[in-house]
Structure formats: structure tokens, C-alpha cells
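Follow-up to my post from last week.
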Amino acid sequence: MATPTAPSASGHPNPLGDELRAGRTAKPCVLVIFGATGDLTKRKLVPSLMGLAKDGLLPPGFAVVGFARRPWTDQGFRTELASGVKQFGRSETTACFEALADAFTFHQADFADPAGYESLKQKLDQLDKARGTGGNRIFYLATPPSSYSSILQNLAATGLSKEQPGRFARVIVEKPFGRDIETARALNDQVRAAFKERQVFRIDHYLGKETVQNILALRFANGIFEPLWNEKFIDHVQITVAESIGVGSRGGYFEESGIIRDMIQNHLMQVLTLVAMEPPASLTADAVRDEKVKVLKAIRSFRPEEVDSATVRAQYTRGSFGGENVNGYRDEEGVPKDSVTETYAALRLQVDNWRWARTPFYLRSGKRLPRRVTEVAIQFKQPPLSLFEGGKPMQPNVLLLRIQPDEGVALRFGAKVPGPDVRIRDVRMDFRYGTAFAGETADAYERLLLDSILGDGTLFARGDEVEEAWRIVDSIVAGWKQSPRRPEEYVAGTWGPDRALELLGDGRSWRKP
Ligand code: BG6
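User reply:
Got it. Predicted complex:
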């Protein structure tokens, strides 16, 4: 992020000042999307670019080249994108696309054919002349991971990946970033053979969500939370990412990844690092990511025999949703009848450092749960002595960070019920984004695309972060492989298997959002 200027009480520059975003000007550039005929480009990337255009955040001359194998024309490409913007874009972005349609061109080539990159280079040089994009390029890998290697090699071989004085070259890599630590390391090696780490932007779209970024603001822009943010006052933390959808047409992909690779290794681990990290020295990309990596490093890998008591995995079976019958996981298209892939997982993780030594972190994520909801619940310890209602234990205080939907923050605490008796009841203080701030919230991809154009890697995963997260996840997967226990079952539309409760212990229970 940009150099802060506002002085703090200590007289040092204040890294949390309003000036953080000031001075960030986007330089003209070309975005090359590999795999541009795919769903991501149509549903997310181009609608998000048009959101930026609407807010006046795209640099002048900005251009997009769609690189893919299919024999599309510029016009065919634009027609497809226009329908994507209409369907998935924010309000009024259709007009932005109409105004900017000329900025989108199509480049047909095979990812493995060097000649396609030579012709790409010529095309980019022409765009520089025609649109003043100054030799600045961003390459977006939106292909299946099996094509990454060819693309990276060819970008390096043609010199397109090279930074030159006054010109930037960057690469954005979509998830999944590997499927275990070995493949992630190999991919990191391939990426770094073509680009330097500062040129690399690994996407985790959860980091682009406003409410995920708000975790840092809540913790470090306020004086009241941080003194309590440790094992002395916090009993445990629950991170829930629940989805009501099943795997739908993605059965083939999901069967190979399971919820642990699809959601936990990336999105939940990223949220966990933001909740657990130490205050960074500044908000520069490396200062923030250094602290996040330390959290992951403080989580021990599991020994295979520990995995069954620290995790629960399960698969959804046939059930009903809003009165409609839905398939069980094994009935989904592309899923074998004897599949043991988990569609739900819950974990107990221990961050072994001074701040968190006795505070467990419980993570859970699943498909076909009753609601789509992502939240972080910080549950505080009970007061040392209960004076009310005959010494009965009170409901614990909970600080709830609602990531989506109904974005906001709530604090639950006990209050006296009016009347002559002294009775305590749970009440809530509630902050809602929708009411506190006017306007549409931008999609996570808008923020991430803008930051990649600005060259700010704070909200992207660094190579070592990704590898550390895989180390933890790999140890769980290895334990599951060795365990005689099969995944539990849960009926679609319920909150997961009963055994997930056993993970918590000590009278704790999972929240029902
Ligand atoms: C993706 C996963 O990364 O995140 C999907 O591959 C999942 O399986 C999606 O549905 C959830 O994202 P969001 O933003 O809808 O919570």
C-alpha cells in the first residue's frame, strides 16, 4: 500500500491513516487473459473490470486481450462479454462495456505454441502505440492449472515476463495453487523461473471481500479489541464458511479436491491468519504477509494418529431444500458411487504461540448446509464469578464478524431484563454495512484486479503462505488416508454430522448461524 503520511501519537508515520489509498494511480496497461473463453472471464473478470470503469478506477487506454484456443473473432468475444456484463455486472455497467468494447480484442492461439506468443508480443506492441499502454502488461492465468506450465515457459521464452525500466509485467494466478505442498512448490518454482515474487499475484478471492479486509481494520484501527484479543480473554474462535449449494456440475473437479482443498486450504486459512496475526509494522504487502505466514508456521502439522480426534469429515446424502428433493453427493454427476471425498470438514487447530496457546480455533466448511453464511465468531471467556440468577453461568460474550451475507459486526452480551427481578438476557449490538454505508459493495474481484493494476500484493497470497497452508492440510489428508474411519454422513440441508460436536468439548457448541 502507499506510503502513509499522517503522524501517530508517537510521531512516526501512521500506517493506518486515511492516506493509505491516496496516491495510488493506475498506470495504463494491457491485461492478457489466458483462457478468456471460460466462465471466469464472463462471470467475474469482465463484469468486475466494468465495475472499476464505472467508478472511474481503470487507467486511461486500458485494454484487454483474450487469449484462447477457440476460433472466436473480436466481435464474437465482445458479444459474449457483453452478455456476461449484463447478467453478472453491477448496475449501469452495461453502458460502460458499450463505451469500452473496442478495448477488448481476441487472440486465438494454442497455449503450448510459441508462435502464438510471438504474435501476442506484436499485438501488445501495437496496442502500446495505439492506446498508450506504455509496455505495461498483466497476464491472468484463468486456464485449468494443467496449462500454467506452458504459458509460463512461453512468457519467459518470449521475454514477455521481464520487467523493464519504467514498464511492469505481472502475473495473476488463479486457484487452485497446487493440490499439495509438492505441487505447490513445483508451481512456485515454475512461476519464479519466469517472474520475480513481487510480480506475482496469487488469487484468493476471499481477500478481496470488504468484510475480510475489515478484520484488519476492526483489530488495528480500534483500541478496544486488541487488548482482549488473546488466550487470556478469548475462549475459542469459530470460523464457518457454509454453502447451501451442492457440487452441481463440478462433481468431477470436486471429487479430486474435496472441501479441504477447495475451501479450507485457501479461504478459511486466509481468514484464520487475519484473525490470529500480530499487528504488522506497516500495511505494506510484505509486512502484512510476514505476519500471516508466522501464524501458519505456528500451527503444527498433525501426526496421522491425531487426525481423527482433531477433525471430522462428512458427505451429504439426499435431502430436501426448501421443499425440493436434492441429490446426495454420490448421486451428483461425475461422482463415483463409492466416493469417500468429503463435502464437509471441521477441524480443531492450535496456533502454538504466546497469544493463542490455550485458545483453539475451530474451522468448518461444507456444501449443502442450510444457509450460505460466512462468519467468524470470537467467543470470550466467562466472568470469573457469576453474581446473577443464583450463580448460574451466563451466555458467553461473542463478537461476531459476519463476512457474508448481511455483512457486519455484532457483539452479544448480557443485559438486565427490565422489571423488579434481576434477570439477565442476551442482547446484541449490531453494525450493518448495508445501513452504515450507502452504495453497492464491489465484488471481491474488482478490488483484486485494481490492486494488481496498482501493483499492490497485500491482498494476494505469497508463495510461502500457500506452501505453509498446504503443509497443514497435507498432514490432515495423510491422516484421513490412513484412518480406518470412513467419512460421516449428513442429510443435505442440515448443519453437518453430529460428530462435529465432539471436536469442541468443554461444553462448547457450534453456532447455528
Ligand atoms: C470457490 C470454490 O473458491 O469459492 C467454490 O471453488 C465455492 O466451491 C466458492 O463455492 C465460494 O465463494 P463465495 O465467494 O461464494 O463464498
